[in-house]
Specification:
This is Dihydrodipicolinate reductase. By secondary structure, the protein is of the alpha/beta class. It is built from twelve helices and 15 strands.
Amino acid sequence: MSRKLRVAQFGCGKMSAYTMRYVYEKGAEIVAAFDQNPAVIGRDIGEILGTEKKGVIVLDASEADRTFASLKPDACIITTMSLMSDLRSAFLACARNGVNAISTCEEAFFPWNSSAAITKELDDLAKKNGCTLCGSGYQDVFWGNLIAVLAGATHRIHRIRGKSSYNVEDYGIALAQVHGAGLDLDAFAREIAASDDISPAERQALIDRGQFLPSYMWNVNGWLCGRLGLTVTSQTQKCIPQTHDTDLHSETLGITIPAGHATGMAAVVTTETEEGITIETECIGKVYAPDEFDRNDWTLTGEPDTQVIINRPATVELTCATIVNRLPDIVNAAPGYVTTDKMGSNAYRAKPLDAYVTR
C-alpha cells in the first residue's frame, strides 16, 4: 500500500485510548470515531488520547453508515461490548459499506459455535461487499496461538488445561456486569449461573435462536479445536461466582461490593473430541482484591507434559496491541467472517502497518 492505513474507531472508552494511540504509533491514522455516550460524542479524539487535537470528532454511532459510505476507511476497530448480538449493528454498518472490521468482543473470536445465525448473516454480507470481519485480542495469543504452538511441539496430547484470570475493572462497566460483579449470590444464581443449568439439547436450541450467553472460553475452545483440527463431540459450560471476605470497591461499577457478594465469576468450559483430546478451560474475571493479579496458566498433558505460567500479563495493552497488529491481516484476508485460526499466528509490526498490506 502506497499510503497510510486509514482506520475508524468504534467505541471510544478505556480500550480506545490504547488502540488509537497504537494506530498512530504504527504509522497509520484515525479518520473517524463513534460512540453512544453523550459525554464522549462531540469531543476531539486527541482529548481521549491526552494529546493535541487530531481533527477527528467523535460522532454518534448512528452516523457510522453515512460516514463509512463517505470516507471508506480501510479498517474499523470495534471496542464496545462482549456479545455478537450487541455488535451486530456495528458489524453490519462495516459490512454494508465494504469496511474491514476487527473487534475486541470476546464472542467474536469464534462466534460460529455460539451465534451461528448472526455470524452467517455477517459472513454473507461481508463476502458480497468484499470485506473481512473478525474478533481478536488477548485470547488470540495467550489462549489461542500460544497453545497451538505448544501443541505443535507435542507428540501426543491427552488433555489441554487452561486457567486465566483478569481484573474486570480494566475493561469497563459492560464487561463487569456480564460477569455478575456486585450481585448477591441468589441474584448471581438467577441471572448468571442458571443459564447454564440446562441440557445439551436446550443449549443448542438457545444457540440456534441466537439467545445463548457464552463464556469467553466457550469460543476459545471452539477456536482451539478449529486450529488443531479436532472434532467436537460435546461441550459444557458452568459459571461459578467469585467472592471476597471483605468489602471491595469497584471504580468501574461505582459501588462497594459487600463481602460475600459476587466480585465476578469463573467460567469452566469442558470440550470432548473425537480424537480423544479433552480441553478444559477456566476463565476468571472479577474485581480484584489488592493482592490479586492477572495470571495465565496452561498445561498440555501427554508426551511430553508441558506447562506455561505467565504472571501479571499486561492484559489491556496486550489486547490492544494484538488488535492493531492484526489490522494488515484483516485487510489481506479473504472476504467474509474469517476467524483468526484461519489467518496464521500474530506477527510483530516493526514497519508502518501499510507495509504489510498486500491487497
